[in-house]
Structure formats: structure tokens, C-alpha cells
């Protein structure tokens, strides 16, 4: 095995994957996961923020630096086995790692860094707003994917899904939910964004629209998980010879968290009166419409036979997990017909 190179300022490093002929180049400014995907290699990942643990690897040789002291996706027992998360680690020397490879995660569009110019921000609800930016290059992504946004003065990137579709004009649209005491959303909601140098690293996610599937489409979202679902609805509207009408189930905590049905009139061919179903988990006395948890409502609302449906799911992890369990365990939906991102 070749001798490993130690870190010096400005160096790039070679990361080799054990038990394979694959390797890729990285540097201290990029995560191991980012460099892996930029090289076109596929390996499991999901949240890209240390929450899910999908991108776990074992360090065989070399040295790395971790962005965070602790991550929800990494247990103490993992650390004792010298395991780390590729999304939160950066190489400080040439390395050899043991990593599960999966070609289904190889990016169809390799992520890259883009500088954004602020255009506008408009409210959808009291704490969910639409933000629009523009890059000099085309906005190249697949409907349902997300970006990693770097905001001046905020430590670490934030993951935000696009709510529009790819376009040559370089328009990037996001639906961002304000987080109480959140540093990133405080900047986004309160600052003069035209004066800030915001960049994104995009695109990421394998939970994007499968334009070649003949099956009907069901979209299920909670909170800011609405953004990728809107992107998918718009993507479906742009497909030729697509006769089916996708359904959107949207979980909200209270009535004021429900997005106005009129918003969806901007989606070509989408009828919010029949295709948009908000479900309120904590309804008020005068609440009209479905209430309760999303997975409980789906149990009685979905048809008995869902075998010819593709399900796209995004939102808080408890909601996504409850919906997945219902679809897989109760309805026996094949795993490859479920496309999901959990928003940690």
C-alpha cells in the first residue's frame, strides 16, 4: 500500500476505498461525501448533515477532521470502531477508508458550488416563506433534490430543497421554515440578503422524480418538506404524455401552518380542490378538513391496492418513518417505490 501524505496548507489528498480499485481526490475545504459524489462514485447518504448515519465509513489509514464533536447519526460504539460520517468529515492526509458502495447513489448530476444573487422572499404561512435566488449558470438539478446553502456568519451549511424545476435562467427557489432561535433562518428572514454573498453546493438526494416510471404519483409532506414535493409536482406537469393526476398530502400542526390552496394554482394542471389534502395534527374547534397524524389518515384514505403507485415523502423524521412503516408493513409497498428525505 502506498505511503500516506501528511497535511500541509493547500494540499489535496487521495482517498482510497478499501477492497476496491476506486479512489478520489479531496481537500480540506470539502467533505469526504462531497468529494466522493463529485467524483461520480455512489455510496449511501441522505441528510448530509450528520443526522441519519447513512454515510458511515471506517477509517483504515490516514487522518481526518470532524466538523462536529457529536452527531446524532454516530453512536459511541461507532466511534470506538473508528467509524465516522462522510458528510461531516474532511481529510487531513491521504486516507484509506472502508465504505459501502452503491451505484444507485451515483449522482446523475454531480454537485458543484454556485454563487447566488438574491431576488425575493414572500410568505406562504406565518413561518414558511419562499426565497428566490439566481445564479449565473443554469439551475441544473432533478425535481425533488436539495442544496447545501452556505450563509455568511453562520457556521456550517444548511440543507434546503428546491421548490421549482431545473431551468436555464439560473433561478433557484426554496421554501424555508423559520426555526426559533435558528441562526441561519434569522439571517435569511431578517437580513438584507442582497448584500450577502450566499453560495450553494448542489444538487443532492436520490429521492428525486423518476420521470420514467409509469406508476401514479403520491406526494406526502410535512413542514418545509413541502418544497421538494412542489418541485416534483411541477416536474410532473412538464412531462409529456402524462395523464395521471398526482395527489399531495400535507401534514401541518395547526390551521395557520396550512399553505393556502390558491398557492398551488401556480402548478400547471394541478387542481388544489381535488389534489391537495392538508391534514392538521392539532386542530382547533373550528378546523375544517382532515385531522390527526398523516400516516393514520393515509391508512383510511389510500385505496386498498397501492401497488401501482410511487410515493415521494419529505418532512420531519417521525412523520417520514411512520408513513414508511405504514406503506411497507401494512400495505406491502416495495421499498423501491418509496422515495424519501428526512429533514433533520
Automatic annotation (TrEMBL):
Superkingdom classification of source: Bacteria
GO molecular function, one term: 2 iron, 2 sulfur cluster binding
Cited InterPro entries: 2Fe-2S_ferredoxin-like_sf, 2Fe-2S_ferredoxin-type, 2Fe2S_fd_BS, Beta-grasp_dom_sf, Cbr1-like_FAD-bd_dom, FAD-bd_FR_type, FNR_nucleotide-bd, MRET
Residue intervals of the 2Fe-2S ferredoxin-type domain: 13-103
CDD domains (alphabetical): fer2 (cd00207), T4MO_e_transfer_like (cd06190)
Domain FAD-binding FR-type: 111-210
SUPFAM superfamilies named among the record's database cross-references: 2Fe-2S ferredoxin-like, Ferredoxin reductase-like, C-terminal NADP-linked domain, Riboflavin synthase domain-like
Pfam family, one: Fer2
UniProt protein name: 2Fe-2S iron-sulfur cluster binding domain-containing protein
Source species: Sneathiella litorea
